[in-house]
């Protein structure tokens, strides 16, 4: 089992803060679609997809980051975040625990563990798949909008034009993360995939979201 203290030190050393945006234009995180599998008011969770039967065969995916105000510097504490995803085989089962909510801490930081989501087709007759992704809904405060978005993985062959969802934002660079693999020195087969996903909210009222035909009920 990976030593939790070593993993914590590794995460702390790699975690970016507001300075990640220094030298780059400060912009709100890109929005994306709800998708057809969103369910409001999920249960509180810090570990997702623990009921997936592939849990013992897969590397743990640890997702962490900070949420910032529109200035890309001020952390936003105690924000509610809803997360939902497909299981390892690309299935959205409404009865599984691959969906839930958590809150950022007093420093605007969040962290949860899950499995790397699987891919799936949106059209059974198409050769295209949706890239692996996680859905996020952030509930803004202090005159900042809510945000609906998705996190994608660098190197996925179905990003952009190869995404079966042509209205989705898998081409947006700020939504694509490069993961880092952290392995136990005493057991190199015991590894955790780490993804850092920092989020910037937009000033204003309402929700930043891309609407698709199946999202009409959330308008």
Helix content: under 10%
Order of helices and strands: HEEEEEEEEEEE
> Structural class from helices and strands?
mainly beta
How many helix segments? 1
Q: Which band does the percent of strand residues land in?
A: 25-35%
Radius of gyration: 17 Å
Q: Residue ranges: pLDDT <50 for 5 or more in a row?
A: none
Q: What's the overall average pLDDT, rounded?
A: 85
Question: Roughly how many Å apart are the termini?
Answer: 45 Å
The number of E-state strands comes to 11
Quaternary state, please?
Answer: single chain
Major sheet summary line: 6 strands, mixed
Q: Globular, elongated, flat, extended or rod-shaped: what is the shape?
A: globular
Folded structure, characterized:
The chain is mostly beta strands. Helix content is 5%, strand content 28%. The chain contains one helix and eleven strands; from the N terminus they run αβββββββββββ. It has one helix spanning 4-14; strands at 60-68, 80-85, 99-103, 109-115, 133-138, 146-153, 176-177, 180-184, 187-196, 199-200, 207-208. The longest helix has 11 residues, at 4-14. The relative contact order is 0.24.
